[in-house]
């Protein structure tokens, strides 16, 4: 799955999530099992092992697409 948003691109599979930010070619990566989703505001939160980051998406439609792919509930 590929979703473009204002800060870059969200690339996801059932196993992994990558955020490719437009600025400075930064890539955030996490295993799907380390991902949590927050509906308000629409955020992806990665927390597990050595990974800890979060990013706000533009709208809930982008978050809903990721939620459907990963099959996880919102916080």
Automatic annotation (TrEMBL):
Query: Short name of one Pfam family for this protein?
Result: DUF3389
Name the InterPro entries for this protein.
Answer: DUF3389
Q: What domain of life does the native source organism fall in?
A: Bacteria
Q: What is this protein called?
A: PTS sugar transporter subunit IIA
Species source reads Shewanella sp. (strain MR-7)
Q: What is the lineage of its organism?
A: Bacteria, Pseudomonadati, Pseudomonadota, Gammaproteobacteria, Alteromonadales
């Amino acid at each position: 799955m590929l979703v473009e948003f204002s800060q870059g691109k969200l690339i996801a599979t059932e196993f992994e999530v990558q955020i490719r930010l437009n600025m400075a070619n930064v890539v955030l990566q996490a295993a799907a099992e380390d991902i949590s989703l927050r509906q308000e505001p629409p955020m992806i939160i990665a927390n597990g092992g050595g990974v800890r980051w979060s990013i706000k998406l533009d709208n809930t439609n982008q978050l809903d697409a990721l939620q459907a792919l990963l099959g996880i509930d919102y916080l």
